[in-house]
Design brief:
This protein has 13 helices and two strands, in the order H-E-E-H-H-H-H-H-H-H-H-H-H-H-H. Strand 1 and strand 2 form a beta hairpin. By secondary structure, the protein is mainly α. Helix 1 (3-48) crosses helix 13 (272-300). The protein has a two-stranded antiparallel ribbon with strand order 1-2. It has helices at 3-48, 65-72, 75-105, 112-124, 127-137, 144-151, 163-176, 179-190, 194-202, 207-235, 239-244, 258-268, 272-300; strands at 51-52, 60-61.
Length: 307
C-alpha cells in the first residue's frame, strides 16, 4: 500500500462520517415527529386494548374483556357492513368517473385549463361546507334533487331521512369531489408516449382498440394507485358522515361507519380501550385489503420497466 493511499484513507473515512452525520441531521426532525406522533401513539393505543380507561379515571387492567365485548357488540357488524357497502360501490365509481373526466380534459380544446379548474374545485372545497351544501341539495322538501325529480314526474325520495337512501346519497356526495384522482389520471395520460398511438393507428386500430390496447395498459399503475388510495380513504370516511347524521350514524344506524363508531366509543361513551381495539381492527382490515391489491396487481399492472 502506497503512502498516498494511507494518507487518503483517514480523509475519506472522515468525509463518510460527516455525510452520515449530515444525513441524520436532515432526517432527525422527521424521525422525532414519527416517534412522537405516529409510532408512540400506536404503541400506546395497542396497550390500551387490554385496559379500561374512561379518560376521567386512572386506567385499569381489563385483560381480554374488550375482545369479549367486540364479539358480542351488535353494532360492529352493522358498521362493517356500512363501511363495506360504501367502499365497494364508491371506489369503482370514483375511479371510473375520474378516468372519464381525465380523458375528456386531456383533449386539446379551447379553454381546457378553465374546465380542468372547474372540475378540480370541488376537491379543494372544505368538507364541512360541502356537506352543508349537499344537505340542502338532498333536502326532502325543497332540495334541488327532489325538485328535478318532480319536474320529470319521478318519485321524491327522503334521502338522508330514509335508511335505504342515506348511503347512496353519501356516495353521490363523495363522487362530486373527483378532482384529486382526475389530476393523477390526467398526468398519467400525458405521460403516455404518442408513438404508441401512432403505431396502433398505422396497424389499423380504431379509438376503442387504442383505448383498450394502449391507454389502459399504460395507465394501469395509475389506476392501481388510485384504487389503493381510494380504498384506504373510504375505510376512514368520517367528517361527512358525522355532519350529515349529527354524529349519530342515523337514520337507524344506516350511516354508522366504523370510524364514526370508533369515535362514539372513545369520545362519547369514553371507552378508550374498546375504541383502540376498533382502531386496530380497522388497521388490520386496511392492511389486508392493501396487501391483497398488491398481490393481484402483479397480474394486471404493467410498468414500462417491466417490473
Amino acid at each position: 500500500m502506497s503512502a498516498t493511499s494511507v494518507r487518503a484513507s483517514p480523509r475519506r473515512s472522515g468525509l463518510l462520517r460527516q455525510e452520515a452525520i449530515d444525513g441524520y441531521l436532515f432526517i432527525g426532525p422527521w424521525l422525532i415527529g414519527f416517534i412522537l406522533w405516529i409510532a408512540g401513539p400506536m404503541v400506546f393505543s395497542f396497550a390500551l386494548i387490554f385496559l379500561n380507561w374512561s379518560l376521567l379515571s386512572p386506567p385499569t387492567f381489563a385483560g381480554l374483556s374488550n375482545f369479549t365485548t367486540l364479539f358480542s357488540d351488535e353494532l360492529i357488524p352493522v358498521s362493517l357492513y356500512n363501511t363495506a357497502y360504501y367502499t365497494f360501490i364508491f371506489v369503482p365509481l370514483h375511479v371510473i368517473l375520474a378516468l372519464l373526466a381525465a380523458l375528456a380534459l386531456n383533449l386539446r380544446v379551447r379553454a381546457v385549463g378553465l374546465f380542468r379548474t372547474i372540475y378540480y374545485l370541488p376537491s379543494i372545497t372544505p368538507t364541512v361546507a360541502s356537506a352543508m351544501l349537499w344537505l340542502w341539495v338532498f333536502n326532502p322538501d325543497f332540495g334541488l334533487v327532489n325538485l328535478l325529480l318532480r319536474k320529470v314526474h319521478g318519485p321524491t325520495l327522503q334521502w338522508f331521512v330514509d335508511p335505504v337512501w342515506a348511503k347512496p346519497a353519501l356516495i353521490i356526495m363523495a363522487l362530486w369531489a373527483l378532482g384529486g384522482a382526475m389530476i393523477i389520471f390526467l398526468a398519467g395520460l400525458q405521460n403516455i408516449p404518442q408513438e404508441l398511438y401512432e403505431a396502433a393507428s398505422i396497424d389499423g386500430a380504431n379509438f376503442w382498440a387504442r383505448f383498450w390496447g394502449v391507454t389502459l395498459p399504460m395507465l394501469s399503475p395509475v389506476i392501481f394507485f388510485n384504487l389503493v388510495v381510494g380504498i384506504i380513504g373510504s375505510f376512514q370516511v368520517f367528517t361527512t358522515v358525522f355532519i350529515i347524521s349529527n354524529g349519530q350514524g342515523g337514520p337507524a344506524n344506516s350511516t354508522l361507519f366504523l370510524v364514526l363508531y370508533l369515535y362514539q366509543s372513545g369520545f362519547v361513551f369514553f371507552k378508550m380501550g374498546y375504541a383502540s381495539l376498533i382502531a386496530w381492527i380497522l388497521f388490520l382490515i386496511v392492511l389486508i385489503f392493501t396487501g391483497l391489491q398488491f398481490l393481484v396487481a402483479r397480474r394486471w399492472v404493467h410498468y414500462e420497466g417491466g417490473f
